[in-house]
Design brief:
With 295 residues, the chain is mainly beta. The protein is 8% helix and 40% strand. Bound molecules: zinc ion (ZN).
């Protein structure tokens, strides 16, 4: 099984100069094989025995591993858009029931992605909003901040994340865009070529933590999938869920549309983890374990 996960490295902590105690972590693999800035990735650690907790620090983020089968522990993570190519240590920490803690370091390479640039034209009110609108935008920033503070301490997802619509991608993540020739902005998600009224499906199981109209996002839904992983669906014409709803993968959560700052109807999907926006296409391409937290 571990062989099919495209191992990029093996760690044996007896040989590691930084190990506090001999680490029970015998191997770590990561998918996809090549990590770039914007990537969503899955770490799988093989950990001997029955530790209480397995976690890691990587790229200044805390990773919580969840137990799977056959001594495997899983953690979904991501690389920020801003991360420069290089090698970054995954600092694994294993905590035993008796309080004993062991560390092990594992180098992980990040390569550079190539992203495009684009010019767009939208109604001027979305580029130079008036004072009243600026107040609204500020208030909505607080609403989103509060929503994003939501935290589920276990993975709520199971298995692969699915595309919210079965339609072509019209604009990729990471494109540097210029609106009306002046406002520069980064495209922080994936656009699907969805005509207005297309049913939009939840990408995985989770809890709806925001479902409302916002100035730029239009009608917007945010689903929390646990451990800091969220998916967002924007510019909808109709919301079929409300805050607090538990949703299942593939459940229809609303209809696509052209609300908010758009050049025309489409579905914008975003993936958020630990405050970072990651590439949804990379998440949808990951093969994930069905029940990562069942032992
Ligand atoms: Zn978009």
């Amino acid at each position: 099984m571990i062989r099919s996960l495209a191992p990029i490295f093996l760690i044996f902590c007896a040989a590691s100069a930084v190990a506090v105690h001999s680490s029970p972590v015998t191997a770590v693999t990561v998918k996809p094989k090549v990590l770039v800035n914007g990537t969503v990735c899955l770490f799988t650690a093989q950990v001997a025995g029955h530790p209480e907790k397995v976690s890691a620090q990587w790229l200044e983020h805390e990773l919580t591993f969840s137990p799977g089968q056959d001594d495997k522990w899983y953690a979904l993570a991501g690389v920020a858009y801003e991360t420069k190519p290089g090698t970054y240590d995954l600092d694994m920490r294993v905590e035993q029931g008796d309080g004993q803690v062991s560390h092990s370091l594992q180098p992980v390479r990040v390569k550079a992605a190539t992203y495009k640039t684009a010019r767009l034209t939208v109604p001027e009110k979305y580029v130079t909003p008036g004072p009243e609108t600026l107040k609204r935008i500020e208030a909505e920033r607080e609403i989103k901040k509060e929503a994003f503070a939501h935290f589920i301490p276990v993975p709520d997802w199971s298995g692969d994340f699915i595309a919210p619509v079965s339609l072509a991608v019209s604009e990729n993540y990471g494109t540097s865009r210029r609106f009306n020739g002046k406002l520069a902005s980064l495209h922080s998600g994936t656009d699907f070529r969805a005509p207005a009224g297309t049913p939009v499906h939840a990408s995985n199981d989770g809890e709806v933590i925001l479902a409302r109209e916002l100035y730029y996002e239009g009608n917007c839904i945010v689903i929390d999938h646990g451990l800091g992983f969220m998916t967002m669906y924007m510019h909808l014409s109709k919301l079929d869920v409300k805050m607090g709803d538990k949703v299942k993968k593939n459940e229809v959560i609303g209809l696509s549309g052209g609300t908010g700052r758009v050049t025309g109807p489409h579905l914008h999907m975003a993936v958020r983890w630990s405050g970072l926006y990651l590439d949804p296409v990379k998440l949808l391409g990951l093969e994930l374990p069905e029940t990562p937290y069942v032992r």
